[in-house]
Amino acid sequence: MTASPPSALPSDDPGGRGRRRARVRLVVALAAALAVLLPLVWLWAASLVPSSYSVMTMGPADTGGVALSHSHRPGAAGGRDVTTLVEPDRGPPDVDVTLTARRQQVTVPGGPTLTAYTLNGTTPGPTIRAREGDLVQVTLVNESVPDGTTLHWHGIDVPNAEDGVAGVTQDAVPVGGRHVYRFRAAQVGTYWYHSHQVSHEQVIKGLLGAVVVTPRAGLGGDVDVLGLAHLYAGRRAVQGRAGDVPVEVPAGARARVRIINTDNGIMPVWVSGAAFEVVAVDGTDVNEPTPVEGKKVALAAGGRVDLRVHVPASGAAVRVEMGGAALVLGPAGSSTPATRAPSGVVDLLSYGSPAPLGLDVAHPDRRFTYSIGRRPGFMNGRPGVHWTVNGRMFPTAPMFMVAEGDVAVVHIDNHSGETHPMHLHGHHVVVLARDGVKATGSPWWTDSLEVLNGQEFDVAFVADNPGVWLDHCHNLPHARDGLTAHLMYEGVTTHFRLGRGTPNTPE
Ligand code: C2O
Ligand code: CU
């Protein structure tokens, strides 16, 4: 009888050992894959935005260094709903306009033909003109804008219920619907209106127009000229016309030229054939403007400047250039050679003379940081390199909380790799410093502040307009891609909701 060779023992079976090792390797590999995948799945799932949500439940409350009482948490019951924050004067309006929104084919004179959005058949829509203090009423009728629409009054600090943000201050107006906006034109200056429903598409395709509020005392004899600039299918037009747009101004006369940048990027503005002064920025007059020569204005997206231009007595024209389009001011048939954009830029940080700000910025009630970055991750399930505010991605960007009467100082910095025109609704901010250098010029009050990559600004504002307000990038595709936060007053709530299960997509 012979003993079984040891190799016959199952425990010594080399094939079995190999199988076991393979199984262990498989388990380890699976575990490793899960260790990578599970957090990704979790991050993906956590980024999903519900089909209907309130902006109040978006990111965590940032109280700017002030303790938050429980009743003042965003969304706390018993607050004033935004719909109560209306223009208090229910009397007859001084300016009464109906704007009918349509989707239609438009041919820009000298430019492209495209499917656009119009108001009363044109883009830009009718200019709304008011005198300082007028009560303005605008009835928006949606005839054929399929996604619904709204009107937002960019730069006009209207009562919150009139702000026109779908899903925050109202529901989008459906086809066949209408909505009435009322506000007092308390601020003199150059403003504009535009849709705040699917704005990245509706604004780009023309659902916009100008608002001009003139002082009771008049313009001191200046000829009032409007230059709303917009890119239609990539082609720049001013007042809805591409190329050179003649404006009759008598020889020797002075004009106030109101330039509005309704696009997503910075627009250069310069003058050929004369010097100019920057007499207003975002609706606020500049204190003691000085003549500018050989420089351009780098106009922020959404921003406005009023330029004062003297038309020569010689009968030659003056060109106000906007890179691809120009206003030609002068007697009929006059001209002047175009010039190239100067490389120098008017620096609003030091332009004009200082004047009291009228607020105590040394002892603010709240201090906020609005830090713009970018990092890889998921946004509503979409992988990508997304914008962040204070390190957080939409929809968890912070909710900046204030109480009525507060003075707030905000430090804005941008390390995202791109420039962002920052726009706070319902308020104007004054620039205190840029990159640590204090402002030394005329008080620079702005509602559309271009923050270049690598730049930082310190700005201040007074919380004097209760509501729930957007504070977003006005490069509208960026806003759609999450570069949006909100400013919210304690004790104010909104019952409006947004998301794909609602009619509202503000950006
Ligand atoms: Cu001009 Cu929130 O927009
Ligand atoms: Cu941006």
Explain what this protein looks like in three dimensions.
The protein is mainly beta and 507 residues long. The protein has three domains: 55-77 and 358-493, Sandwich (Immunoglobulin-like); 85-218, Immunoglobulin-like (Sandwich); 221-346, Immunoglobulin-like. The protein has three helices and 35 strands. Strands 17-16-19-14-11-12-13-21-20-15-18-22 form a twelve-stranded mixed sheet, with no helix packed on it. Strands 23, 24, 26, 28, 29, 30 and 32 form a seven-stranded mixed sheet that branches. The longest helix has 34 residues, at 14-47. The model is unreliable at 1-10 (pLDDT under 50). It binds CU-O-CU linkage and copper (II) ion. Copper (II) ion binds at residues 420, 473, 475, 478, 483.
CATH superfamily of the largest domain: Cupredoxins -  blue copper proteins
Report the principal-axis shape. Answer: globular
Structural class: mainly beta
Number of domains: 3
Q: Count the strands?
A: 35
Looking at the overall shape, the CATH architecture of the largest domain is Sandwich
CATH topology category name of the largest domain: Immunoglobulin-like
The CATH class of the largest domain? Mainly Beta
Ends: how far apart? Answer: 89 Å
**Widest β-sheet, arrangement of strands:** 17-16-19-14-11-12-13-21-20-15-18-22
Unreliably modeled segments: 1-10
Query: Which radius of gyration do the C-alpha atoms yield?
Result: 28 Å
